[in-house]
């Protein structure tokens, strides 16, 4: 199967984790888009969704699925999202689509994080994928120096030759050269640096389940 077909398969498989009568948390990205398309087939069973990005909100609404503001919701049964990397403990790197802050906010509302990904995203140690860090622009250079002290190289993410601006009006640094041995400690430390909005390590909001698209079908990993 092609990577696109694998994404569609895990997107459909995630429907089994949607709780009838409950609002569902929806992430961002190409794999999640497949889930959103599948979700339209059972939209009458749910009151709506909480979305982690403008792009996902627009896709949900176009399919007739009501989108609620996160402030209107006390809890979610599940949050379904992809990952750029996931290790064997359910820790993830996310933010390739620039929605990491809102993804973390919605994930924090959920009882369970269901990760949907293809097998290429599974790793032994996080850090090979450039780590996204959403930052307040005036702090970008000093944050880059802090990563350099850890052996990382931080580069400002650009779009059309200009700094990419997130849905929150901030910038993103992508950091290479890291091997994140203790994701929870790393996340806690970097989140304390002045000017960091969110680091793209999801250890405190780790996956409970990963639906992994493989050539043999969807593999279910529980953490």
UniProtKB/TrEMBL annotation:
<dbReference type="InterPro" id="IPR020672">
    <property type="entry name" value="Ribose5P_isomerase_typA_subgr"/>
</dbReference>
<protein>
    <recommendedName>
        <fullName>Ribose-5-phosphate isomerase A</fullName>
        <ecNumber>5.3.1.6</ecNumber>
    </recommendedName>
</protein>
<dbReference type="InterPro" id="IPR037171">
    <property type="entry name" value="NagB/RpiA_transferase-like"/>
</dbReference>
<feature type="binding site">
    <location>
        <begin position="94"/>
        <end position="97"/>
    </location>
    <ligand>
        <name>substrate</name>
    </ligand>
</feature>
<comment type="function">
    <text>Catalyzes the reversible conversion of ribose-5-phosphate to ribulose 5-phosphate.</text>
</comment>
<dbReference type="Pfam" id="PF06026">
    <property type="entry name" value="Rib_5-P_isom_A"/>
</dbReference>
<dbReference type="InterPro" id="IPR004788">
    <property type="entry name" value="Ribose5P_isomerase_type_A"/>
</dbReference>
<comment type="similarity">
    <text>Belongs to the ribose 5-phosphate isomerase family.</text>
</comment>
<keyword id="KW-0413">Isomerase</keyword>
<comment type="subunit">
    <text>Homodimer.</text>
</comment>
<feature type="active site" description="Proton acceptor">
    <location>
        <position position="103"/>
    </location>
</feature>
<feature type="binding site">
    <location>
        <begin position="81"/>
        <end position="84"/>
    </location>
    <ligand>
        <name>substrate</name>
    </ligand>
</feature>
<comment type="pathway">
    <text>Carbohydrate degradation; pentose phosphate pathway; D-ribose 5-phosphate from D-ribulose 5-phosphate (non-oxidative stage): step 1/1.</text>
</comment>
<dbReference type="GO" id="GO:0004751">
    <property type="term" value="F:ribose-5-phosphate isomerase activity"/>
</dbReference>
<feature type="binding site">
    <location>
        <begin position="28"/>
        <end position="31"/>
    </location>
    <ligand>
        <name>substrate</name>
    </ligand>
</feature>
<feature type="binding site">
    <location>
        <position position="121"/>
    </location>
    <ligand>
        <name>substrate</name>
    </ligand>
</feature>
